């Protein structure tokens, strides 16, 4: 075969030519998406998935200490069991006095006081607040608590069936800085023994300003009188559901204390005579609850409103003998009122209109179960009290007209109602 001949297609002069590459097929958008959706293997999951979360150990020690410093001691003890690093943080924090200012303990008082005292070590003097719920309180436990934490200012021993005056006595006499006592739900606190306690406080009166005796059903008039005499600095007193307290005990309150807040709700023995005596507190009284004191009427409320003209909060819910005369006296005498509860009273349209004109700064108003009010009274409240933020009209004959008036004038008011037609 000669040199000039062709040996095959595409090959001439003895030189073999490479065929041109075939053109690449154009992929459509659908094909691109279909390829992207194919499983490309496990190694691609790190790129396709959400970003990894930072592990806890990437935070600096200073930042963790700052975060944990907002917890109470009881929570820090639980956090110390998570890991060794957190255990070291908790050890560093509990060596400081700041976390020990508030202690929320559990178990019997004697055991809790001993354990907390051992754990606090040199920081025991920093403890200012002690809270214990549903615990067993004994005289020995109270003495140990008072001896260990001498700088306590706030004490809450709630829901204890074993708490009595003998156990409370060392706390009152030995804790010289105690100002706040909460004994809610301690039904066996028998206050007549305070006469014995007074003999131990002849040279010093405790600076107690706040006492909550809610649901302490053993409190009597004699015990209340002795308590008031023992604590002349008292400013906040709550006697909710202390059913043995009557006018005979309440009458001594203005003689010993200048109270700012008082609650005798559900004390059915308190009558108009008791309110006459309480009115002697004058402008110092800012908060009063006589809810469900069924013997309180217009007469007592009128006298109180005339003398305690700086009242900010008044709860007269369930005082069935309270009507328009008493509500008018409240409006004209307590123009600075911010919150008022008139639920289940005999207030009507006329009384509500006067109240609205005289108390334009009302923020909260409860009218639940007031069967004599209607749309006219509610429209007056909406027009004059435009800063109203909370209104309760459950179980009332108010119609859609009154509801819409409140929505129109009180833009930020939350309305509680039981009418499914309101929208």
UniProtKB/TrEMBL annotation:
BP terms from Gene Ontology: SCF-dependent proteasomal ubiquitin-dependent protein catabolic process
Secretion signal span: none
Name of the featured protein: F-box domain-containing protein
Organism superkingdom: Eukaryota
GO cellular component, one term: SCF ubiquitin ligase complex
Gene3D superfamilies: 1.20.1280.50, Ribonuclease Inhibitor (3.80.10.10)
Keyword line: Ubl conjugation pathway
SMART domains from the UniProt entry: FBOX (SM00256), LRR_CC (SM00367)
PROSITE patterns for this protein: FBOX (PS50181)
Segments forming domain F-box: 53-103
Disordered as annotated region, ranges: 1-26
């Amino acid at each position: 075969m000669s040199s000039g001949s062709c040996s095959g297609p595409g090959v001439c002069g003895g030189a073999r030519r490479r065929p041109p590459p075939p053109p690449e097929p154009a992929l459509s958008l659908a094909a691109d998406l279909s390829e992207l959706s194919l499983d490309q293997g496990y190694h691609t999951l790190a790129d396709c998935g959400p970003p990894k979360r930072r592990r806890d150990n990437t935070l600096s020690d200073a930042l963790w200490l700052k975060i944990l410093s907002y917890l109470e001691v009881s929570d820090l003890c639980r956090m110390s069991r998570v890991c060794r690093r957190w255990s070291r943080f908790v050890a560093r924090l509990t060596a400081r006095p700041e976390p020990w200012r508030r202690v929320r303990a559990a178990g019997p008082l004697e055991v809790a006081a001993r354990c907390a005292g051992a754990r606090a070590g040199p920081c025991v003097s920093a403890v200012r607040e002690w809270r214990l719920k549903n615990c067993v309180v004994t005289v020995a436990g109270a003495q140990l608590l008072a001896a260990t934490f001498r700088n306590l200012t706030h004490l809450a021993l709630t829901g204890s069936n074993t708490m009595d005056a003998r156990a409370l006595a060392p706390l009152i006499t030995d804790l010289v800085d105690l100002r706040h006592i909460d004994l809610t739900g301690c039904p066996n606190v028998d206050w007549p023994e305070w006469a014995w306690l007074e003999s131990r406080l002849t040279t010093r009166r405790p600076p107690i300003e706040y006492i909550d005796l809610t649901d302490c059903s053993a409190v009597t008039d004699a015990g209340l009188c002795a308590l008031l005499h023992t604590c002349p600095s008292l400013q906040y007193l709550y006697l909710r559901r202390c059913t043995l307290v009557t006018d005979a005990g309440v009458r001594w309150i203005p003689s010993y204390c200048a109270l700012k807040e008082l609650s005798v709700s559900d004390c059915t023995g308190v009558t108009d005579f008791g309110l006459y005596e309480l009115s002697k507190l004058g402008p110092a009284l800012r908060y009063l609850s006589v809810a469900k004191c069924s013997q309180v009427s217009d007469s007592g409320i009128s006298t109180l409103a005339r003398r305690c003209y700086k009242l900010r909060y008044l709860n007269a819910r369930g005082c069935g003998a309270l009507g328009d005369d008493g509500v008018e006296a409240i409006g004209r005498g307590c123009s600075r009122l911010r919150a008022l509860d008139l639920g289940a009273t005999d207030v009507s349209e006329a009384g509500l209109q006067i109240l609205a004109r005289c108390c334009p700064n009302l923020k909260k108003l409860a009218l639940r179960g007031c069967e004599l009010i209607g749309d006219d009274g509610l429209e007056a409240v909406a027009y004059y009290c435009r800063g109203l933020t909370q209104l309760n009209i459950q179980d009332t004959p108010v119609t859609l007209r009154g509801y819409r008036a409140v929505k129109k004038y009180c833009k930020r008011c939350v309305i509680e109602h039981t009418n499914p037609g309101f929208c």
